[in-house]
Amino acid sequence: MRRRLAAVLVAAAVFAAACGGETDDDGSPTATPAAVTEDSPTTAAAPQPAPTTTTAAPAEAGTVAATDAEPTSPPPESTPEPAGTPAATPEDDVAAHPSDAYFALDHVLDISIEIAVEDWDTLRHQTRTFGDLLAEIEKYGLSQPFASIYTWFGATVTVDGETHADVGVRKKGFIGSQSDTKPSLKLRFDKYVDGQSLGGVMERMTLNNGIQDPSMVNTCLSYRVFAAAGNPTPRCNFATVSVNGRNLGLYVHVEEFKAPFLARHFESTEGNLYEGTVSDFTPDYRGTIEKKTNEDAADWSDIDAVVAALQDPSPAGLQALGEIVDLDRFLSFWATEVLVGHWDGYAGDRNNYWFYREPDGPFVFLPWGTDDTFHLRDDPNPFDNISNPPPSVLALTAIPNRLYNTPDWRITYVDRLKQILEVVWDEEELLAAVDEMAAIVQRHALPEAREAAAADAERVRKFILKRRGEILADLTPRPPEWPEPEGDVLPGAGLSGSLEVSFETTWGSNESPNPPQEGSVISLLLDGSSEPVEGLIVTAGDATPAEAVLLPGIAEIASIVVVKVEDDGSLNGMVLAVALDELAAGATLVIGVDTIAGGIFSIPPGAAAPDTFSSFSDGTLELSSAGTAPGTSVAGSFSGSYGDSPPPAVGDGEGAAPGTTAGDVGLVINEVAAKGDPMDWFELHNTSPDPIALEGFEVADDLGDAGKRVAFPAGTVIQPGAYLQFRTDKDGWPGFALGGDEELGIWLLDGTPVDRVDWEEGQSPEGRSYARLPDATGDFRTVDDPTPGAANQPSAAATTTAPTTESAGMGDSLYPLLGNEGYDVLHYDIDLDVDPATNTISALTTITARATQDMSAFNLDLSGLEVHDVTVDGVTAGFSRAGSELTVRPEAALAEGEEFSVSVGYSGSPEPIDDPGAPFGPLGWLSQDGVIYTLNQPSGAMTWFPSNNHPADKATFELRITVPDSATAAATGLLIDETTAGAHTTTTWRMDDLMATYLAAVYIGDFERIEHGRLRPDGPLLRDYIPGDAPPEVAEALAVTADAVRFLEELLGPYPFDAYGTLVLPIPIELALENQTLSVHGRDFLDPFIIAHEAAHQWLGNSVALEDWGDIWLNEGFATYLHLMFEAEHHGADFDAGMQQLHAQLPSFAGTPPKGITLEELFGPSVYLRGAMTLHALRLHAGDETFFAILRTHYERSAGDSTNTEEFLGIVDEFAGSEAVALVESWLYDEAVPDLPEPQP
After folding, report:
1. 957 vs 383, 453, 586, 1055, CA distance in Å?
2. d(C-alpha 543, C-alpha 545), whole Å
3. Pairing mode, if any, of strands 823-835 and 955-964?
């Protein structure tokens, strides 16, 4: 049984590592001489020989490092070129060969396969399941490579009209790329006919199905980057494949690592070639490395030499490593894996890599399986405990981890990464390559695959445009540390404690090829404390004979297993064995009473069996669903104690007998109502057989502050099995109240915790409660029908669970609850019918979005107003309100990546809100003196339309506004339609460029539209809106707009939108706001520099938005500096003298640093003026040419997106170096106002 448990856990890690790649488990090839192989050149240019002696220090480009000394780290001044040493010949230098035609990107191969129907059915259904992995690992552990499971079949193959009979065809792939409808394939023309080849030059073909890459461009594009960085790289193009007349669609054709490839890139093909699949140079993972050449020679000394060098922590270990691995070339390989986001490669996942060593030479690494590149997932491998890997490094595995944690090597790695980023990462060329490949996909893919391909190609384009900035930002001010692995999620065996777990999976998931998709662990408590559940897998199915030993004498047994694999290779888990005839929905099975047993275990790194196993001494399994038909839901919860000794005693509180444990008390929090009517309440339940005197307990609404705990009323006793409701009125419970985002705990008087619960906003909304289901023992869930003083009823459960904790708020440093995670809004369609006389609206907003995580509910921001109905994809959805959060519960859960629409119908009189970050007055929808206008920055948009109200989530917009004919409506965007029906006029405004919600605006009143035409033939349309009774001076003041826009275009580039102008309010307020395409000004706030300031925001603040409101200086400081420049030019003033004078005055009114501001300082003078002075200091230090290059690059790289200070500092470092970064940081963070630097000549 223990060996089986080890297999479960190791297989989970294997699955996580291998499911993403195109790992090839072909039989080992024989390294044949280049002159007689498929792709070998007839007159190949001889590559330069590899160095025979290397050191741990990387060599300069084009040199061979040879020394008698024993350096342990690279010289800091060493700056090797990214092309690597000569033996790693760049692709452009490899000699041409007739086989090149079969890999030309513009040549889409036409491949037709005729194969016996029964053979094809057998081939495509050959599959490696999770159960197969279990069996193999149970038998062998990680002591040997994973076996090939595929069979060759004979077929007739035609390629571009050239037909060959008796060609070998087989399926390929490890787990993640497997498909029985579009299998990846290998072709061998010489499998059954000696010497047979395609075109006389190719004997083998590899055809990848690309099912993990909807765009189909990842592999070829990433290989192009690897090759350009000097790495020996496979050739790649596309092919259409049909089998027995059925078109399977487009495939990716990839060159294999065979002798012809080696001949093209190395001097000798006689060396050792290896493949790594869940493999590394450590004692634990060394066994799965597969030898691909010279396999008959039982010589693994070169692998053992690498392992031994890495096991030696001394400088001699690095010296030895440099003698067996070409570390200079490895730097380029490693940096390129990071650059293209190859998380499933060697450095990030122990997977998808090959490496080759010429006789007596060092190892050179080769890229493979890059079909999941060009995006770094937040949690790429849930089993390695490296969530949110930094963009600039992957160092999970032995070699990169050793180098990155050696200071001088870290510097050298960063230098190499920056060099490749500068030399190879040409955004314009890469985008052109994406366009070329995407066009091929659109022409040749099956029609049903084209839409997804086009959409996913946008993901690649976005990655290309953002990658430079995010890497440089991540390296500023210093390279990140590689995250340390977290501790065990499940406890180590051999200890004593308690465990509570809630889970859902399906029957047979232990044999599934993709068990994580079959279910999940919902919650986990260890000794009463909540633990993260990311990375846990749960499976259910027939118990193996090894597991069945837990229930001797029982013929048919089911098993439920929860597993976790830690980064260091240690394995932890829980197993339950249950009599099959007792596994049923609604069953409650008790250890010691029913036929159930189990325990927890821990397996050391590399071991094949647990070192200890702790049985459950007690425990209860409650099954909400169960069944033994394949795919049937198996869900429920288990709570129990493990170990030979009981948990520590909780003391002698009056409420419990001396020596009882917290688990023995029998007092549980069973239900809470955070928005109860007429007051909040909570319910306790006594599960014990004895009365409990509550005088021995304390309760608090804060789990962390013992000073807030209050006693229960004297004489309160809860009888056995009773439910007791407590209403939290302020008189009876001073200092105690429940809130929408709250927590509740109970303790014995000596401080021993008894029970606890915490909930998020929306989980206990008005009219609902948060209750344990199943009653008294289950996890807390939102229920529609509260049951105070009685048992909780399963039928009362809300139709869906509450949103995940990430759902409400985006973690903004100043507005942590503003916006919502879980989805990305693509488009807003807002239909407003407005009655200005009563200031009321009737509205329908439809939001198109894409889920970024699995969701059974999600939040929108909406304040006030009455919501009538909510639909998701046209189907009525449940909803609830809690403050400004509108929680939507669709009938069907939304899957990560799924596009959906949500429509909200609402009406009422919008009420403005007070925001401590906006000292200029109320925000949102405002009505004054017969004019309706919106001032949204930063949070007011939610007063008039539901949204994801944060600038990090931008979207396109269309607004339709219906008003009486007596009024004029204006809005952000282009006016595309105006229709009149009866006494009302509807105008439609479209914003095709992405826009933050606070920049959407509506104005209704007596306005006159003034058209100025376009700034230039291809420039923006200029138009203003002024009050109908405005004096001529208003229009005259706005005439400066065109000059300001031209001035800004000279500095930043073309104006980013289709239109621009100003709306002047007939209200005497000193305020202006940069709404996208239509800034708004109070009638007395029309100075030229203010007009220029709001115009500057169209580039910096609107097109380039903020990821976090704490970076507001990027908006206001930049716009202020640009308007000061314009003002000086407009008035012919001495700009430098003015800035010197401003600097002298700065400490008296704007001395606070712009970063680290409080909410009340959001629009304070430091953000504007010290922010502007920060830029002026940078300009003086760097000089005009460099400064304006920085300014323009900052805009161009984030145009249409959002940014942050770190990304800007990365650009500063790129153009002006680390001293300039330090200068900017002193202005942003230091309390004292720094001195201005001397200007550059």
Report:
1. 40, 25, 49, 19
2. 7
3. parallel
